[in-house]
Amino acid sequence: MGDYRIAILPGDGTGREVAIEASKILNTISDKTNIGFDLTEIACGGQLYKETGKEWAEGSFEFCRDESDAIFLGAIGHPGAFLPNGDLAGGSVILGLRSGLDLYANVRPVKLFNGVMHKVHGKFRQIWEPEMVDMTILRENTEGLYHSLLKRASNRAQGLEDYVVPEVEFPDLQGEVVYDPRPISSHGTERLVRMGFEIAKTRNGAPSDGVSRVSCIDKSNVTRGCQLFRRTFDQVASNYTGISTDYGYIDAFTQWLTRTPEHYDVVVTSNMFGDIATDLAAVLQGGMGMAGSGNIGDDHAFFEPVHGSSPKYAGMNKVNPIASINSVQMMMDWLGRKNGSQELLDVASSIETCVAQHLAEGKYLTYDLGGDSSCSQVGDMITQRLAKTLSEN
Ligand code: IPM
Ligand code: MG
Known about the structure:
Shape: globular
Mean pLDDT: 96
Strand order of the largest sheet: 2-1-3-10-9-4-5-8-6-7
Bound molecules: 3-isopropylmalic acid, magnesium ion
Radius of gyration: 20 Å
Distance between the termini: 24 Å
């Protein structure tokens, strides 16, 4: 038995390929350090649902909750795979875990490494230049516009009764009317924003001026929920006097994010805004193939690349595994902080260094970064580099 139990959920499409690369990294850490990982793979997703009528085997949610220290998820989403109620097949996994394990912050770092092309202006950051893009976006992960879908998915994952959206009438509207509530709570906002400020304390500030800054992104000129979000943000911010704050409306933010990303250090926002903004932000770090993430709560967490299952590349050993390797890096950092283990924190920084060196060298890159290496080749090269680094430490 290893020291840490990791559930590996490959899921659908290219998620299955990148999960192999994530597992290689974990196994290398087990081989080369005193840290042990005991990996358990759980089949899941939309394709499995299509084949078997189940999104994952019974007891899988409980296994993730009670018998794992951290979870890695490849990707969920298979073409045409929907449940009879119209919800995404595989939703029990990704959304069921987010809501059922109360993983209230979706933490999505956006960093442009040396050697990676910025996909808007096509420039590479040179080693002597200051960072252009290095921010962390926190997306609220349990409420907002996803709330009812999250509740349905987590109730299903736990075998609970179906969640029914409260009835609301819109007598002024005509024809069929469908309604997704967007509840935002002070509790949900407060804990998200607090995590944002805590993360800001661990970073070096915004690339442009080195100022530690948390930006509140909302649409408080329009929605009541966003007004509560901003009010709660201000209350939390008053406890963090050393960190500066600013505000933006989500529409304007998409523009500033693209034009002057170097201004941003930590960004906090609501669920759907964060979903959309982080796909855009991935363009600033070389594309979705680079974007890792952590779905983080107080007791549990799962880590996943932000990219989906990319069905058109599935089975081709083609996609970039670095988003997944960066997600494993985040897993090591989270486990290290949670368990007070300096060794895990050191492993996390070794992974980051190895990814940075690999990219700066630029010899083995997947198609999205302009190379012709395969997914497994890039995974092997980074794994070998990590093995060497860990043996030397
Ligand atoms: C993401 C994805 C998911 C989401 C989908 C697969 C349900 O787009 O993690 O960003 O909408 O949250
Ligand atoms: Mg998304």
